[in-house]
């Protein structure tokens, strides 16, 4: 597991690219500039690790495009010490970004293979999520609620009710909603039954599937 000078250079170029695409949050840019994305990917894609693109990982899933990771993370407005829930651990790259921001991260993955690989891998890089869970993200994580923010990293055909219910007042849910193409959607909980919804652009994710596998 090597992180070379060359990788660091490529990473700074990637930071410039996503900055040019409109990401302004300095903490998010710093995290992207710091995390060795090439180590989260299959060796056959190493040369592409610092392109602003999604790539295949194990179990037919993908590591999200860095711009998408940055865009979603920016919408979460993470503050140090925030309790955060991620649905779709995947490669653990987004989890690492949240750890870099000082969040207490709970992350759920429905593919056992990925759950196992990533649970072993993240601590090796020094990223310690509060808890990685093998389970179904549609249900959220009631026993740890409420969360300051929740991020869904797979395309949701609808907004799962438990996720809204598990937000703290003032909490933020960032979720791509749609079947083939998803609209990035932000819900801010204004009161026990009051949510403010804002829609952003279109993105493409692998589908949020029910149950575990
Ligand atoms: N955050 C990841 C993105 C991985 S792609 C990364 O940075 O690499 C989306 C992930 O969501 C996949 O790993 C997929 O298996 C997972 N997923 C899909 N449906 C899910 C569900 N209901 N609960 C938990 N994880 C789910």
Describe this structure in words.
- Catalyzes the methyl esterification of L-isoaspartyl residues in peptides and proteins that result from spontaneous decomposition of normal L-aspartyl and L-asparaginyl residues. It plays a role in the repair and/or degradation of damaged proteins.
- GO terms for molecular function: protein-L-isoaspartate (D-aspartate) O-methyltransferase activity.
- One of its GO terms (biological process) is protein repair.
- It catalyses: [protein]-L-isoaspartate + S-adenosyl-L-methionine = [protein]-L-isoaspartate alpha-methyl ester + S-adenosyl-L-homocysteine.
- It is found in: Cytoplasm.
- The chain has about 210 residues and is an alpha/beta fold.
- It has one domain (about 5-205): Vaccinia Virus protein VP39 (Rossmann fold, 3-Layer(aba) Sandwich).
- Helix content is about 30%, strand content about 25%.
- It is built from six helices and nine strands, in the order H-H-E-E-H-E-H-E-H-E-E-H-E-E-E.
- It has helices at about 5-20, 25-35, 65-75, 95-100, 110-125, 160-165, and strands spanning about 55, 60-65, 85, 105-110, 130-135, 145-150, 165-175, 180-190, 195-205.
- The strands form two sheets. Strands 5-4-3-6-7-8-9 form a seven-stranded mixed sheet. A two-stranded antiparallel sheet has the order 1-2.
- Helix 6 links the parallel strand 6 and strand 7 (about 165-175).
- Helix 1 runs antiparallel to helix 2 (about 25-35).
- The longest helix has 16 residues, at about 5-20.
- It is globular and about 50 Å long.
- Bound molecules: S-adenosyl-L-homocysteine.
- S-adenosyl-L-homocysteine binds near residues 64, 88, 94, 136 and 206.
């Amino acid at each position: 597991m090597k992180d070379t000078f060359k990788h660091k250079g490529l990473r700074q170029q990637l930071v410039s690219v996503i900055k040019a695409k409109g990401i302004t949050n300095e903490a998010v840019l710093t995290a992207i500039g710091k995390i060795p994305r090439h180590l989260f990917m299959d060796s056959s894609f190493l040369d592409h690790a610092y392109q602003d693109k999604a790539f295949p990982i194990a179990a037919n899933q993908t590591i999200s495009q860095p711009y998408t990771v940055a865009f979603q993370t920016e919408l979460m407005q993470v503050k140090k010490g925030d309790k955060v829930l991620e649905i779709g651990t995947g490669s653990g790259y987004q989890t690492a970004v949240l750890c870099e921001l000082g969040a207490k991260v709970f992350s759920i993955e429905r593919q056992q293979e990925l759950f196992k690989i990533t649970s072993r891998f993240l601590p090796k890089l020094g990223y310690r999520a509060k808890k990685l869970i093998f389970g179904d993200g549609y249900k959220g994580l009631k026993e740890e609620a409420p969360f300051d923010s929740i991020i869904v990293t797979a395309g949701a055909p609808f907004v799962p009710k438990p996720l809204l219910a598990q937000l703290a007042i003032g909490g933020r849910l960032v979720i791509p909603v749609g079947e083939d193409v998803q609209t990035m959607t932000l819900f801010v909980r204004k009161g026990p039954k009051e949510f403010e919804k804002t829609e952003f652009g279109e993105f493409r994710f692998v589908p949020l599937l029910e149950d575990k596998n």
